[in-house]
Amino acid sequence: MLLITGATGFIGRRLLVRLAESGYEVRALLRPSPRNPKIPQGVPIQVTVASLSDQRGLRSALLGIDRVIHLATATHRGGPGDIATVDVEGTRNLCLAAADAGVEHLLFLSHLGADRSSAYPVLRAKAEAEESIKASGVPYTILRTGLAFGVEDHLTVPLAMLLAVSPLIFLLPGDGATLLQPIWVEDLATCITWGLDDPSLRGMVIEIGGPEFVTYRQLVERVGHFAGYVRFLVPARQPYLRMAAKLMEWLLPAPPETTFNLDYLAANRTAELNALPSIFGLKPSRLEDKLDYLRGANWGWELAARQLRREYRGRR
Questions:
Q1: Does residue 202 lie within any of the structural domains?
Q2: What is the CATH number of the domain that holds 83?
Q3: Using an 8 Å Cβ cutoff, are 35 and 207 in contact?
Q4: This prediction's pTM
């Protein structure tokens, strides 16, 4: 049986379906929360409730577990304190518990650009988490990936919302030339599933992304095309955009722009273009072939609705 953390997140929900289709017995580690977990319907899983700071809860969750998929992160929902607690300390606690439980394989999802010397908190946190995994003694596979896209993602959907509420112009960080390599979430779920039982990937840090490099400007243009918004793209300086992002994080329960997004855009985030075919034998999907989910929605209204839903949940 395998344990998955972060099972109710954007990637985790797709992965649960893929694992069920592949016949895996799955136990999901859910953090304590007053909200109902977003678990896909019809997926047979066991559920255990414990936070990554609860050593006793982690030991209990790992009983009978031989493999772990670690997706849990505070990247898109918390500040530096949350990232340190979940991504760094939480990973360290999970590794200690996994080593004690005799776990045979731990697969960890990291970011392209993870580096302990990085100027950006999230990328430093991912690098520290990687170090804990390598030092744990548990056989591991680390996947550093480009940003995943798909329905309810943290990449194209927030962009569509920002475009919807931007009057005539859309501000780009710098000149918008940063290279990205978005990966279709279903392709990523497939790679994680196939990587579980591939002994050749043990002890490896693997960098993967989609089948093409796109600049941030091109990404915005494609999202605007599918979502139905035409805006003039205007270069802007990073410090001003960071101020705007911090203001949104302070004012909005579910901000469409975050400082993590801007940090990510500070440098190119790419891997080898042929990584998925050469390592996993998978032909990846192109960005433009999978963006139909952006059509027909009122993304300005969806942005407002998200704030109301998050505010209501926060008061429960």
A1: no
A2: 3.40.50.720
A3: no
A4: 0.93
